Amino acid sequence: MKQWKRLIIALDMESELRLNKTVRLLGRKIDKFKIGSVAFTRWGPRVVKKICRQGKEVFLDLKFYDIPHTMIKASFAAADLGVWSFTVHLSAGREALEALREELESFCRRRKIRRPLIMGVSELTSKKASLMRVLKLAEVGFLSKIDGIVCAAPEAKKIKEHFPVLKIVTPGIRTKVSDDQQRIATASFAFSQGADYIVVGRPITESPNILKAATELLSR
């Protein structure tokens, strides 16, 4: 099933033992895992390096949003860790994001390392957001020439229509609509709207049988 390659598992958990087990079990099927603020705050760069050493790719979701100098230095640190991609807030603006991309490209050339993909966060799926607002943020990402956008499934289709060059990562994937997220969708709907990747955490990682849960989620 090609969807397995488009699935990013969020490792937002408090037990390193459970995190290791999740990577071991799902690593048979998928290549990408998300390290967000929960796991990174608990275990720091060590957990990123551990996953990379296993031949897996890390989506570092720390949502950098600061003065340009600080964001640039954070992007250097992410590149040195060997992550596949990291997130920034699109609200940082075009000037800051352009500077970050340019400086990061130069840094990676000097180090002779792969440049991580830069993914801009539009609006969190835990709150309501207008399509116009999300499209304006997506335009910031497009004009600054970053690699992609993190957005909810309902916005993905319009973003692809306006800015087809941008990759789209979609969180808020669920198998049912009753949830703490405002803008959620099934995996099949997200893919049909143009999502290149989907991010899933609790619906899979909190299941007694995570492989079965992942298989069922991808079939809906």
Summarize the structure.
The protein is α/β, with parallel strands linked by helices and 220 residues long. The chain is built from ten helices and eight strands.
Task: Classify the secondary structure makeup into a structural class.
Answer: alpha/beta
Q: Distance between termini?
A: 13 Å
User: What's the CATH first level?
Assistant: Alpha Beta
Give the uncertain stretches in residue-range form.
Answer: none
The number of strands is: 8
Write down the Rg. Answer: 17 Å
Into which percent range does the helicity of residues fall?
Answer: 40-55%
Order of helices and strands: EHEHHEHEHEHEHEHEHH
CATH architecture: Alpha-Beta Barrel
Q: Total number of helical segments? A: 10
Structural domain count = 1
**Can you give the mean pLDDT?**
93
Query: Approximately how much beta-strand content do the residues carry?
Result: 15-25%
Give the neighbour order of strands across the main sheet. Answer: 1-2-3-4-5-6-7-8
Instruction: Tell the overall outline.
Output: globular
**Main sheet, how many strands, which sense, barrel?**
8 strands, parallel, barrel
CATH homologous superfamily grouping: Aldolase class I
CATH fold field value:
TIM Barrel
Supply database-style keywords.
17% strand; alpha/beta; 8 strands; 8-stranded parallel barrel; 10 helices; 220 residues; TIM Barrel
Can you put this structure into words, describing what you see?
This protein is 46% helix and 17% strand. The protein is an alpha/beta fold and 220 residues long. α7 links the parallel β6 (148-150) and β7. α4 runs parallel beside α5 and α6 packs across α7 (153-162). The longest helix is centred in the middle third of the chain and has 18 residues, at 94-111.
